Amino acid sequence: MSEKKLAIIATKGTLDWAYPPFILASTAAALGYQVQIFFTFYGLQLVRKEMDLQVSPLGNPGMPMPMAMDKWFPVLGTAIPGMQRIMTMMMKSKMKSKGVASVEELRELCLEADVKMVGCQMTVDLFDFTHDNFIDGLEYGGAATFFEFAGESDITLYI
Q1: Is 106 helix (H, G, I), strand (E, B) or coil?
Q2: ∠ at Cα 125 (119, 131), nearest 5°?
Q3: Which CATH class is domain 5-158?
Q4: pLDDT score of 77
Q5: Among 88, 93, 108, 128, which residue has the least CB neighbours within 10 Å?
């Protein structure tokens, strides 16, 4: 029986969207899957050396708001300058109080578990990044690189 494979495309670069690819990848690796994450467009933020991930409450109606704010605080109010930073601090505090690992810890866990991480070279070029902007161990490739692995995968997820 051959090893199961999981392919993940990570396209989002916010704090709340950073958790799913790393949690799923590390869990699958622990279960014996061969795992690859392809980071493209805003998903590249998740593999930068210097991360400053934020939660974006604006346009995120499923986000539970603290103090039942979703019941009394207007959605437009989430666009007030500084609100994103406040919501990010609140989310990080909540996660820490619940014992949830940080994105950096989960990312490191994935690297230790031999999850292959591939940065989209086209996106790196598009946004004028250099390889120095990204973590050690990140490989680079294009869509064809992803399809080569995903085409043989048991599970492919778009996050």
Answers
A1: helix
A2: 55
A3: alpha beta
A4: 58
A5: 128
